[in-house]
Amino acid sequence: MPELKPDMTYTEKEFWGARPLLKRVKLVASKTRKSPHAILGWLMVWMLTRISYETTYATEVGKASLNMLFLMSAATGGGKSAARKVAQDNFVFQDLGLSCPSPVQAGSGEAIPDSFYVRVKQINEEGKEVWTEEWLNPNHCRIFYNDEISFHKGKAQQNSSTLEATYLSMYSGDYLGRTLAGGKGKEVPAGKYRAITVFNAQPENDPFRSDASMASGMPSRLLNLNASNPTARADYESASTIPMPQPFKIPLFGSPGDAMRPQFRALPEMEAAHAEEDFLANEGLREHGRSHTLLTRAKTACVLAALEGRDYLVIEDWHLAGHLIEHSNAIDFSIKRALSVAARTEAGKAGAILGVKLGASDESKYLYAVERVAKNLKKHAKECGYDLSRPRTDDVNLKPMSALNLKISGRDRDLIEPALNSIINETNNKKEDSNEN
């Protein structure tokens, strides 16, 4: 069995300086006061449209579709849509017949299969009229773009809605659609399409953090990206003397007329991580709501490789993808927190929550509770074999995390993740301060 090795971790500065493309994304984001994560997210979306639907992520267990789900999170006017335009203007893809299709917005799960192909009448060799299927894109590809999350939220809450279930199936490349009476309806065969979905959402309106969504594993399938840039002012000032460069050419991916579609083969370190996750799942120790996080990380690694023009993985792809997953997990937590605050505020309008009126002290109470849990984690981490200097999803921490969980009171379990994040942030801040000095 491959050895489970610790991940390499990055500060934000190290991540955006790791590759020429990432450096350019950061520069363009700084010059335009937009989010580098949102710009990179759109480049990943467009790269996926240019990777054949027949190309998969292959492990010793089997092959997985590279279809992905992205969520761009920011307040209204925070730059979600603007980042897409900035990415279009400053980065150029070289096409080999798999050009990017126009995004569509799905009104229902049943309507999604209609987006992939049309039926047309043709005359066959016998001179008879027959119906044939014509794919709307040579790569059997569609981008489903939900620019206004309230539209999806309203549709998904209808009793008959199958939207979220369909998005789950699309992520896995499963069969889509159904055949109705009289031959009506459309079907899209499993593994025969490329689908990328992008949601723009305000944290307080995010529809994917409910108990039902958690149980289905929807949040772990999403790559959450911050579409606002908290450091925009400092970034803009630091890049003020640098002229805006010419559009960056994304390296060419693939070759014209490939007879065999490339497959992204998992590295030994990735196989070891998948094996450990399977063991934890079988032992009932895998963290709730994280059922697909590792696969989302693997898909992210494949796209980062493709953005360099490679159809094979290197260990840096895996480590950089791990950094993006940590970013995604942090956004996931901030969304849950915003939803909680919104729910408490709404309840507060009626008077009180648990008999205590909402006040300005709520935030300080919350921060105090996180700090208290962080102290307990520091106290027990060493005996549990947990490395507090590394992310929770780091391979070396997967098993110790279960033991560490048991050391924390049940009432505080929801605070473990923010407490661990605060410890990591504290460590990174100290590291950056020491580097500057």
Structural notes for this entry:
This protein is an alpha/beta fold and about 425 residues long. The protein is about 45% helix and about 10% strand. It folds into 2 domains: about 10-105 and about 140-175 and about 190-330, Rossmann fold (3-Layer(aba) Sandwich); about 360-435. The protein has helices at about 10-15, 20-30, 35-50, 80-90, 150-155, 165-170, 210-215, 220, 230-240, 270-280, 295-305, 315-350, 360-385, 400-405, 415-435; strands at about 55-60, 65, 70-75, 90, 115-125, 130-135, 140-145, 175, 185-190, 195-200, 220-225, 250, 265. The chain has a 4-stranded parallel β-sheet with strand order 7-10-3-11, sandwiched between helices. It has a 3-stranded mixed β-sheet with strand order 2-1-13, covered by helices on one side. Helix 2 crosses helix 9 (about 230-240), helix 11 crosses helix 12 (about 315-350) and helix 13 crosses helix 15 (about 415-435). The two termini are about 45 Å apart.
